[in-house]
Amino acid sequence: MIDKRVKNAQEAIQGITDGMTLIVGGFGLSGIPENSIAELVASNISGLTCISNNAGVDDFGLGLLLQKKQIKKMIASYVGENAEFERQMLSGELEVELTPQGTLAEKCRAAQHGIPAFYTPAGYGTEVAEGKETKEFNGKMYILEYAYEADFSIVKAWKGDHAGNLIFRGTARNFNAPMAGAGKITIAEVEELVEPGELDPNQIHIPGIMVQRIFQGEKFEKRIEQRTTRKRES
Fold first, then answer.
1. How far apart are CA 52 and CA 44, in angstroms?
2. Quick one: pLDDT at residue 215?
3. Please, which domain of life does this record's source organism belong to (predicted)?
4. Domains of the chain in sequence order
């Protein structure tokens, strides 16, 4: 039986070194690999290029890596909840590449499936298209976008088994699904690591072939960026 388990986050991130490119799952603070990020912060690895929907908030998620200046370049689609991100970007301390959200997802999915490039209409006629090849299809202009090339993908799932099969839960599925398998090595951090055969094959979102390392995380905070509530009806 294939067994891709590692003991913890410290063992999972072995091989990540200065200057590498990482793809990191999550949307806002939903579905982020909390334990893996914390271990990267503790490792003091620097010069990283991080590909993620956003950079968390100032004191959580990828924002912790930004605080310690461990990220050299951020490739993201949204930066609105992180004041430190904004400060570093405006001061020139951090290189930032803003990408349309759908394009970012597709660049991950293309890498996941071994597709080197694809055409998309998103961003044509804007700064996003500068320096990129364009082509017309059926009277509409498209931009050529290349799949990401990353050393590691780090994703978070609800459940996983020894072989690396993954099941996501609710909105935490987000970017984690297309990012699994998009890097040369994929690390999966799960809330519950189960025995082989316990996962229903019909419910598996990501097959184990796309995962190289898996471990059970602990003490997930699952923070909420902006809690929105309404008064209870009488």
1. 20
2. 98
3. Bacteria
4. 9-216 (3.40.1080.10)
